[in-house]
Every structure is written in structure tokens, then in C-alpha cells.
């Protein structure tokens, strides 16, 4: 059941939700203007490109991506690289910095690690990451708008290396965090981890949506229904579509060895959104902020393993161990 405005806030403050983490005045923001976008950055010739960059076509299978031991080793590496790029780029989020500068940092990090930015030239996209600020729910294009104190920005990183794509994203505060924004971001992070924790082999994929939607509603947030996770591996976007809202008729089941993303977008306001003239940026109509987190996961014999972590276990998104420590698992 969704938390209502006059209910006590989920944080335990004793205040009404509308006067605490559900205070819409505290998360109100102006529409994010689209700035100037520079031409695509170049990638050295020695770095292997995905097929769609060189041929304009996706030749790999769109069927569910099921890994064997050899392909899983390669995917683990791609995911570790993606996690490292996200961490390093997130460390540079600051007031006055532009998302264009964040794109440059990410781009240089991909190259340093021998990876190709999967989004660069994917279906006409011209940047190495997506940067979605405040009310942009996804696919924001890095530009020359300086980030402002109180903004939030999602950075979406996908690395292609060893013939595999590793995909993750996280939402970061800009400047001084506001309590209402902290609530949105940390609820989205936990919803993502709860969705992953609900994965069981040979059980419905819908378990992910049930865990995410129920938890988000308990804190007064909505979930974007139109976008979801996707199969990933040798193919950037493959089946199955991973719903984050419960959908009648979704009879998908998960199998050991499957790899896909879990990446819910949570809303503080109404669910309606529109696409900007650039053909990519998706912005909520009421300008209320949204947040997103994403991991690439592997279905195991008894649950799920998060793959988008560095070799030494770091991630900007969080782990199932974090969930367990919080007492939420």
C-alpha cells in the first residue's frame, strides 16, 4: 500500500510524510534546460568496438543472455570496468562542474582501462555516458550546463570489453544534500538491491517488480513503468525486459546463468513524462526529481550475484551485503 501524504513518515521522525521526506516543496525544481552538446569523442583504433559501431547493425542475438564459464569470465571483467568508470566519474560530481566534463572523465577512464563506451554511436547516441539531472528520468545527454547546489544527477555507464557489455548507474548529490533528496536516493538504492535480492532461479522474473514496487510505495514513491532492465552480455540490450512494476501477463522465468540488469527509476511526483527534441532526454512533466540505480546481475543456483563491482569489491550502487547489514534483506 502506498504511503499517503498525511501518514507518519517512513523515517520515524513522527512528522507527517508531507512535512518530512514527502515534502514536495523541498524537492521542487525548475525544468532542467538542455545545454550545448559537443561532437562525439574519439576512441583509439586499438580498442575493439561493438558491431553496431562498425557496421551500423546489431548482429549478436537478442535472446536471453545465458553465460557459460568462459563468457562469464569475460563479462565479469566488463562489469568490473564499468563499476570502476562509474566510481571515478561520480567522484568528480560537484557544483559548477558540467555533465560534459563528467563525460570527458568517463571517456578517458574507459580508454585507460581498454574499454569502449557502449553508448557512443549506439543508435545515434553521441556521448560516452548518460547524465540525467533532477527531473530527467533517463537518457540525458551530457552538455555544458553547470550542475547547481542541490541538484541530483544519475550517471549511467556501460563498458564494452572482451566482447561483453557491463552496465551500471548511480544517482549522486550535487553540493549540500537535502533530506528529501537523501530519502529519494537511498530509497531508490535500496529498492534496486531488494529487487536483486528477490531473484530466484526457476521462479518468475516478476518477483523483481513485486519487491521494488512494494518497497517504493511503502515510502510514498512511484516507479516508472515504461522503462525496465534488460538482458545483457554479448548484446547490449537483449531479452528479457525486466519490469520494475507488476505487469499482468508477464510469465517470464529466470534460469541459472542468465544475466540482465535491474535498474528502477523512482518518482517523487506524477508518472507522466515526455521526450525532448533531442530524441533521447526523458523528462517528467511536473519537474519533480527522480532517481535511478542499476546493476548487472547473474542468476545463480540459489539467487543472484551482482557483477558490476570492481575487482576489490567496490561499487557506487551498493551490494546485497549492504542490504543485509541494514536489516532489510
**How big is the Rg?**
19 Å
Percentage of residues in helical conformation: 25-40%
What summary fits the major beta sheet? 4 strands, antiparallel
CATH class: Alpha Beta
Question: Which segments are poorly predicted (pLDDT under 50) over 5 or more consecutive residues?
Answer: none
Taken in chain order, the helices and strands follow as: HHHHEEEEEHHEEEEEEEEEEH
Strand element count: 15
Overall shape: it is: globular
Strand content: 15-25%
Give me the number of helical elements. 7
On the 0 to 100 scale, the average pLDDT is 94
User: What is the total domain count?
Assistant: 1
CATH architecture, by name, is Alpha-Beta Complex
| Structural class by sheet pairing and helices | alpha+beta
Superfamily (CATH H level) name: Creatinase/methionine aminopeptidase superfamily
Task: Kindly report how far apart the N and C termini lie.
Answer: 19 Å
CATH fold annotation? Creatine Amidinohydrolase
Amino acid at each position: 500500500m502506498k504511503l499517503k501524504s498525511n501518514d507518519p513518515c517512513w523515517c520515524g521522525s513522527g512528522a507527517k510524510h508531507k512535512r518530512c521526506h514527502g515534502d514536495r516543496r523541498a524537492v521542487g525544481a525548475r525544468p532542467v534546460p538542455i545545454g550545448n552538446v559537443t561532437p562525439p569523442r574519439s576512441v583509439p583504433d586499438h580498442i575493439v568496438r561493438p558491431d553496431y559501431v562498425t557496421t551500423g547493425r546489431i548482429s549478436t542475438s537478442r535472446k536471453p543472455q545465458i553465460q557459460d564459464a568462459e563468457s562469464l569470465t569475460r563479462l565479469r571483467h566488463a562489469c568490473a570496468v564499468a563499476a570502476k568508470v562509474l566510481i571515478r566519474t561520480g567522484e568528480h560530481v560537484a557544483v559548477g562542474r558540467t555533465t560534459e566534463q563528467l563525460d570527458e572523465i568517463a571517456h578517458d577512464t574507459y580508454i585507460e582501462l581498454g574499454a569502449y563506451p557502449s553508448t557512443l554511436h549506439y543508435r545515434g547516441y553521441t556521448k560516452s555516458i548518460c547524465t540525467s539531472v533532477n527531473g530527467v528520468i533517463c537518457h540525458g545527454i551530457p552538455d555544458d550546463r553547470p550542475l547547481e547546489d542541490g541538484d541530483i544527477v544519475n550517471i549511467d555507464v556501460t563498458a564494452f570489453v572482451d566482447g561483453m557489455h557491463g552496465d551500471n548507474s548511480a544517482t549522486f548529490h550535487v553540493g549540500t544534500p537535502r533530506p528529501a533528496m537523501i530519502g529519494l536516493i537511498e530509497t531508490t538504492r535500496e529498492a534496486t538491491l531488494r529487487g536483486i535480492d528477490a531473484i530466484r532461479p526457476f521462479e518468475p522474473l516478476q518477483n523483481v517488480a513485486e519487491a521494488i514496487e512494494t518497497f517504493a510505495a511503502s515510502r510514498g514513491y512511484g516507479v516508472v513503468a515504461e522503462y525496465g532492465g534488460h538482458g545483457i552480455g554479448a548484446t547490449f540490450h537483449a531479452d528479457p525486459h525486466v519490469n520494475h512494476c507488476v505487469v499482468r501477463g508477464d510469465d517470464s522465468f529466470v534460469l541459472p546463468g542468465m544475466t540482465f540488469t535491474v535498474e528502477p527509476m523512482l518518482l517523487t511526483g506524477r508518472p507522466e513524462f515526455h521526450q525532448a527534441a533531442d530524441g533521447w532526454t526523458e523528462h517528467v512533466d511536473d519537474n519533480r526529481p527522480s532517481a535511478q540505480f542499476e546493476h548487472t546481475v547473474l542468476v545463480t543456483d540459489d539467487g543472484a550475484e551482482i557483477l558490476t563491482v570492481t575487482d576489490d569489491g567496490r561499487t557506487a550502487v551498493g551490494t546485497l551485503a549492504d542490504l543485509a547489514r541494514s536489516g532489510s534483506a
